[in-house]
Each structure stands twice: as structure tokens, then as C-alpha cells.
Amino acid sequence: MSQQVDVIAGTGLDLKARKSHWPARLDFVQSASGLLLGLFMWGHMAFVSTILISNDAMYWVTKMFEGQFILGKAYPGIVAAVVAVVSFLFVLHGLLAMRKFPANWNEYRSFASHRKMLRHEDTTLWWVQAWTGFALFFLASVHLYQMLMHPGDIGPYESAERVWSGRWWPLYLVLLFAVELHGGVGLYRLAVKWGWFEGKDPNRTRIMLKRLKWAITIFFLTLGLLTLAAYMKLGHERRDRVGERYVPSWAAPGGQR
Fold first, then answer.
1. Helix-helix angle 76-97:121-149, to 10 degrees
2. Which domain holds residue 176?
3. pLDDT for residue 14 is more than 60
4. Residue 86 three-state SS
């Protein structure tokens, strides 16, 4: 008995039974990495969609990220460095997110039955996020590796040829839906989890955030589909001239190109 009292009243309670802060820290890192990846996703879509403006606009954005307008010369290695950082965040976020996946069949069955019984929309959104995240392990990894190994093959002609002649468009089509659904749900859940924009009425705020989340998702899906279609169209038109590098209108001899 005295031994048990010593454990309860002594140093055992203060040190050995003390709760670890690591789960909270890992949860914060998961949230922070997810936020960064979500914002990058939106920025990436905005940049690649410049093909809808013109070939020159897309070329200008590409060379801007390669440092040409600051360094006087394009360095695709800058793009590779950015892709490497994004890849690190992607792997880190994925590993941390796996902590919350069902670890075995019993856990999966228990969650599925509870989800079906509760019919709670946010729980269903988490399930969508889990499945799209699983798909991204494969789809996004392939895309990131390709960009990491060939950072110089980005441009109006180069990207269009990869999409059409390289037969990447099926992967990009599925990847578009996976990343937009996953990222949109993730950013919504972050706002709810950390109480961003909570205001005086959290329930009303949650409803507004959910509507905003779907509006943004639909917007980026539409923008992504139009962008992919534009690259496919350009790639199809240039299917007999694969390998030709794009020359902007201001640098092409004889004016517009």
C-alpha cells in the first residue's frame, strides 16, 4: 500500500505520469504544413492558368520564377529548389496525417458505422479528405518528381506537350479533383479547428465557411479544367512539332509568334 501511495503522491505523478506535449506539437506542425501546402496549391493554380491569358503571359510567369528578370538569366534550379521544399512539406504532412487514419480493419469498421449512424457532414468531409489524401500519395508524388527532375521543361509549348504528347492529362485530371477537394476541405477544417473568423456565433460562422469552401472549390475546379483543356488543345495542335521551345513575341524575329 505504501508503495502505491508513494507513486501517487510522490515524483511518479509529477514526472512519469505527466502527459506528453508531443501530440499537440505534431498536430500544430500538421496544421501548419497543410496551410502552407493549401496556399501553395492556390498560387500554383493561379500561375499555370495564365495560359488562358496568352502563351506570352505563361512564359513570363515561368521565367519570373526562374529568376530571369532579376538575375538576367533563367535558372530552372530555382524551380527545382521550390519543388524540393514543397515535396518535403508534402511528405511531412502526409506522415503526420497518417496518425489519424484507421490503423486496422476494426478501427475502419467502427468509424464507418459511426459515420453512417451520425450522418454528420463534417465527419463525411474528413472521410473525403482522408481518401483524397491517400490518392495524393501516389498522384502528387509522380508530378513532384517529374518537376524536380525536369524543372526546365516548363513553358507554353513544353507544358502543353507534356500534357498531350506525354499523355499526362489523365493523371492531371484525377490529380486536379483530388488536390482541390483535399485542400479545400483541409483549409475549411483548419479554420474551424483553430477558431479562425469565429466571431460571436460559431455555428453561423461554420455555415458561412462551408459555403465559402464549396464556392472556392468549384471556382478552382472550373479554372483547373479550363486550364487543362487549354494545354491539351495547344499540345494537340503541336503534336507534330514536339520538342520546339517557345519563343515569346517580344523576342521572336518578325514580330508576333
1. 150
2. 25-103+110-237
3. no
4. helix
From the list 35, 55, 146, the residue with the least C-alpha distance to 96 is 35
**Which residue has 499555370 as its cell numbers?**
48
- Cell for 143? 508530378
Per-residue pLDDT reduced to its tens digit, 92-151: 999 999 888 887 888 878 877 877 777 777 888 888 899 999 999 999 999 999 999 999
Residue 134 is part of a domain; what is its CATH number? Answer: 1.20.1300.10
The answer to whether position 9 is within a domain reads no
Tell me the pTM. 0.84
Nearest to 43 by CA among 95, 91, 86, 75: 86
Cell of 154: 516548363
Phi, psi for 99 (deg, rounded to 5):
-60, -25
- Which grid coordinates belong to 232? 491539351
> What does the block give as the cell for 221?
475546379
